[in-house]
Amino acid sequence: MMVSRQSDKNFHPIIDGIHLKTLVLGEATLMTEVHLSKKSILPRHHHPYEQTGYLLSGKLLLQIGEEKFEMTRGDSWCIPKDMPHQAVTLEDSIALEIFSPPREDYKKYLDREAAGVE
Fold first, then answer.
1. How does pLDDT run along the chain (118 residues), one tens digit per residue?
2. CA 18 – CA 41 distance, rounded (Å)
3. CA-to-CA dists, residue 79 to 10, 64, 110, angstroms
4. Is it true that domain 12-113 has CATH number 2.170.16.10?
Protein backbone atom coordinates (compact mmCIF):
# COMPACT_ATOMS: atom_id res chain seq x y z
CA MET A 1 0.00 0.00 0.00
CA MET A 2 1.17 3.53 -0.73
CA VAL A 3 -0.42 6.90 0.01
CA SER A 4 0.96 10.18 -1.33
CA ARG A 5 0.14 13.73 -0.24
CA GLN A 6 -0.33 16.63 -2.65
CA SER A 7 2.85 18.61 -3.21
CA ASP A 8 4.04 21.07 -5.85
CA LYS A 9 7.66 20.01 -5.23
CA ASN A 10 9.89 17.31 -6.72
CA PHE A 11 8.98 17.54 -10.41
CA HIS A 12 11.69 16.37 -12.82
CA PRO A 13 12.30 17.61 -16.39
CA ILE A 14 12.05 14.81 -18.93
CA ILE A 15 12.30 17.02 -22.05
CA ASP A 16 12.01 20.77 -22.72
CA GLY A 17 8.77 22.07 -21.24
CA ILE A 18 7.65 18.75 -19.75
CA HIS A 19 8.10 17.89 -16.07
CA LEU A 20 6.75 14.95 -14.13
CA LYS A 21 6.77 13.19 -10.84
CA THR A 22 5.64 9.74 -9.92
CA LEU A 23 2.90 9.99 -7.31
CA VAL A 24 2.41 6.36 -6.32
CA LEU A 25 3.81 3.00 -7.31
CA GLY A 26 2.04 -0.33 -7.02
CA GLU A 27 2.73 -3.87 -8.09
CA ALA A 28 0.79 -3.48 -11.38
CA THR A 29 0.55 0.30 -11.91
CA LEU A 30 2.49 3.54 -11.63
CA MET A 31 0.78 6.96 -11.55
CA THR A 32 2.41 10.23 -12.62
CA GLU A 33 1.49 13.90 -12.66
CA VAL A 34 2.80 15.64 -15.78
CA HIS A 35 3.12 19.41 -16.27
CA LEU A 36 3.40 20.46 -19.91
CA SER A 37 4.24 24.02 -20.99
CA LYS A 38 2.47 25.56 -23.99
CA LYS A 39 4.14 24.62 -27.30
CA SER A 40 6.10 21.73 -25.78
CA ILE A 41 6.29 18.59 -27.90
CA LEU A 42 6.42 15.01 -26.71
CA PRO A 43 8.00 13.32 -29.76
CA ARG A 44 6.46 10.26 -31.37
CA HIS A 45 7.46 7.16 -29.38
CA HIS A 46 6.16 3.84 -28.12
CA HIS A 47 6.79 1.65 -25.09
CA PRO A 48 5.79 -1.73 -23.67
CA TYR A 49 3.30 -0.16 -21.21
CA GLU A 50 -0.43 0.46 -21.45
CA GLN A 51 -0.92 4.17 -20.72
CA THR A 52 -4.14 5.76 -19.52
CA GLY A 53 -4.43 9.47 -18.93
CA TYR A 54 -6.75 12.22 -17.76
CA LEU A 55 -6.28 15.90 -18.64
CA LEU A 56 -6.72 17.93 -15.46
CA SER A 57 -6.21 21.29 -17.20
CA GLY A 58 -5.13 22.79 -20.51
CA LYS A 59 -5.31 21.57 -24.09
CA LEU A 60 -3.26 19.01 -26.05
CA LEU A 61 -3.14 17.68 -29.58
CA LEU A 62 -2.66 13.96 -28.99
CA GLN A 63 -1.81 11.58 -31.82
CA ILE A 64 -2.33 7.87 -31.16
CA GLY A 65 -1.31 5.74 -34.12
CA GLU A 66 -2.47 7.78 -37.11
CA GLU A 67 -5.47 9.40 -35.36
CA LYS A 68 -5.32 12.92 -33.89
CA PHE A 69 -7.42 14.16 -30.98
CA GLU A 70 -7.71 17.65 -29.52
CA MET A 71 -7.92 16.98 -25.79
CA THR A 72 -9.32 19.50 -23.29
CA ARG A 73 -9.85 19.52 -19.52
CA GLY A 74 -11.74 16.41 -18.43
CA ASP A 75 -10.82 14.29 -21.48
CA SER A 76 -9.10 10.94 -21.06
CA TRP A 77 -7.27 8.37 -23.17
CA CYS A 78 -5.95 4.84 -23.18
CA ILE A 79 -2.95 3.99 -25.36
CA PRO A 80 -2.25 0.28 -25.91
CA LYS A 81 1.26 -0.99 -25.28
CA ASP A 82 3.66 -0.56 -28.23
CA MET A 83 1.29 1.93 -29.96
CA PRO A 84 3.16 4.95 -31.41
CA HIS A 85 1.93 8.25 -29.97
CA GLN A 86 2.93 11.88 -29.51
CA ALA A 87 1.57 15.12 -28.06
CA VAL A 88 1.77 18.83 -28.79
CA THR A 89 0.78 21.14 -25.94
CA LEU A 90 -1.61 23.86 -27.13
CA GLU A 91 -1.95 25.47 -23.67
CA ASP A 92 -0.13 24.99 -20.37
CA SER A 93 -1.51 21.63 -19.23
CA ILE A 94 -1.51 19.15 -16.37
CA ALA A 95 -2.19 15.45 -16.95
CA LEU A 96 -2.50 12.45 -14.70
CA GLU A 97 -1.11 9.29 -16.33
CA ILE A 98 -1.12 5.67 -15.24
CA PHE A 99 1.18 3.00 -16.68
CA SER A 100 0.79 -0.75 -16.46
CA PRO A 101 3.02 -2.51 -15.76
CA PRO A 102 4.96 0.18 -13.84
CA ARG A 103 7.55 1.99 -15.96
CA GLU A 104 11.00 1.10 -14.69
CA ASP A 105 12.41 4.44 -15.92
CA TYR A 106 9.76 6.44 -13.97
CA LYS A 107 10.29 4.71 -10.63
CA LYS A 108 13.21 7.07 -9.97
CA TYR A 109 10.80 10.04 -10.15
CA LEU A 110 8.77 8.83 -7.16
CA ASP A 111 8.04 11.80 -4.88
CA ARG A 112 9.47 9.99 -1.88
CA GLU A 113 8.81 12.93 0.43
CA ALA A 114 5.06 13.13 -0.40
CA ALA A 115 4.74 9.33 -0.28
CA GLY A 116 6.54 9.10 3.06
CA VAL A 117 9.13 6.70 1.63
CA GLU A 118 12.74 6.86 2.78
1. 899 999 999 999 999 999 999 999 999 999 999 999 999 999 999 999 999 999 999 999 999 999 999 999 999 999 999 999 999 999 999 999 999 999 999 999 999 999 988 7
2. 8
3. 26, 7, 22
4. no
